[in-house]
Amino acid sequence: MRQDHLITATQLSRPDIEAVLDRAREIDGSREAFEQRYSGSVLALCFFEPSTRTKMSFETAAKRLGAETIDMGSIESSSVKKGESLADTVRVIEGYADALVLRHPSEGSAKMASEFVDVPVINAGDGAGQHPSQTLLDLHTIRERHGLDDLTIGIMGDLKYGRTVHSLASALTNFDATQHFISPESLRLPRSVRFDLHESGAQVREHTELDAVLPELDVLYVTRIQRERFPDENEYHQIAGEYRIDADTLSAADPDLTVMHPLPRVDEIAADVDETSHARYFEQAHNGVPVRMALLDMLLGGDSA
Ligand code: NCD
Predict the structure, then answer these.
(1) What is the rounded CA–CA span in Å between residue 52 and residue 149?
(2) For residues 103 and 304, which has the higher predicted lDDT (pLDDT)?
(3) In this predicted structure, what is the pLDDT of residue 230?
(4) What single DSSP character describes residue 79?
(5) Has 104 been annotated as catalytic?
(6) CB-facing half-sphere around the CA of 211: CA atoms within 13 A
(7) pLDDT tens per residue, range 179-230
(8) What is the spatial distance between Cα 75 and Cα 83, in angstroms, rounded to a whole number?
(9) Active site residue 164
(10) Catalytic residue at 54?
């Protein structure tokens, strides 16, 4: 990778993405070969927002590479509670670790943190901004099944506040992918993301309903309505539940359609979809380990691939 930090998916070129995904594939094939590669290294987990998959898969990835992890713990138990600034927190933690994984509710926080430290910072979600390591595992999941070119993908749900969507949409501009965005008018992609997609010449369409476009899709990427980022609780209740799929919805889909979701789901994918051959979201979550191992390998190893 050309950069020391992973802050947004826009910094990733096609060769960067392919290098990480090739490495993930290699790791999947021979985990033992990577087992003790980073013994003695320390990865710091700094999560200012809840996380299950991202945090645990980074932790598992580090451990499988032989590295140790240290965890800031909850905000309640850390000095943040005493009013410490993010800049001070990361400047202290950089002295304890070789890389830092940061999740924070403020958009732009990972970029800001990266300006204060010399060790690599990985943005594990900055508010409604970006979540680039999630994108790498999403792309790995898509590539292993469909390839990344000549791809038609539908991205549905909360496109305004969903950071996984912003990163995925941007990374897909490196490939020959047509992106269909399906959401209520009030949760359309932010103007800045639409502008960047347009600038990059991406093939993009926006819809308010899934029906018309569903049969064309290779992948349907469903997202959760981000309740915690809604300024207005009433608006949340009006919208939640509208963009929901079940096994019946998918009867109109291509038999090879892959349904993905970054998880956690609330009720946007009914449990009966889990039993269909379309469901790939648990596999997608499991792919977090080899992909994050590959990413750590490249950032800790100073790989210039
Ligand atoms: C997502 C996130 O935190 O942005 N989850 C994840 O990292 N897998 C999606 C979400 O919270 O809806």
Answers:
(1) 31
(2) 103
(3) 86
(4) G
(5) no
(6) 1
(7) 999 999 999 999 999 999 999 999 999 999 999 999 999 999 999 999 988 8
(8) 10
(9) no
(10) yes
3-state secondary structure of 153: strand
Helix (H) or strand (E) holding 171: helix 163-172
Find all residues with CB under 8 Å of 183, minimum gap 6, and list them. 156, 157, 158, 159, 160, 189, 206, 208, 243
pLDDT of residue 31: 84
* Whether residue 133 has its Cβ less than 6 Å from ligand 1: no
First to last CA, the chain: 6
Rounded Cα gap, residues 243 and 211, in angstroms: 11
Contacts of 70 (CB under 8 A, 6+ apart): 42, 43, 44, 45, 93, 96, 97
Q: Is 132 in the pocket of ligand 1 (CB under 6 A)?
A: no
Q: Is 125 in the pocket of ligand 1 (CB under 6 A)?
A: yes
Instruction: Identify the active-site residue in 103, 143, 163, 166.
Output: 103
Helix (H) and strand (E) counts for the chain?
10, 9
Q: Where are the beta strands (DSSP E) in 164-216?
A: 177-182, 203-207
Check residue 284 and give its pLDDT.
Answer: 98
Atom of ligand 1 nearest to the CA of 53: 8
Is 53 an active-site residue? yes
- The CA-CA-CA angle for residues 204, 122, 282, to 5°, reads 65
Whether the CB of 163 sits within 6 Å of ligand 1:
yes
Annotated catalytic residue 188 = no
Looking at 23, 131, 224, 278, which residue is catalytic?
A: 131
Q: What distance in angstroms lies between residue 33's CA and the mean position of ligand 1's atoms? A: 30
- Ligand 1, pocket-test mutation among 53, 156, 263, most atoms within 8 A of CB: 263
Based on its alpha-carbon atoms, the radius of gyration of the chain, rounded to whole angstroms, reads 19
pLDDT bucket at 302, cuts 50 / 70 / 90: low
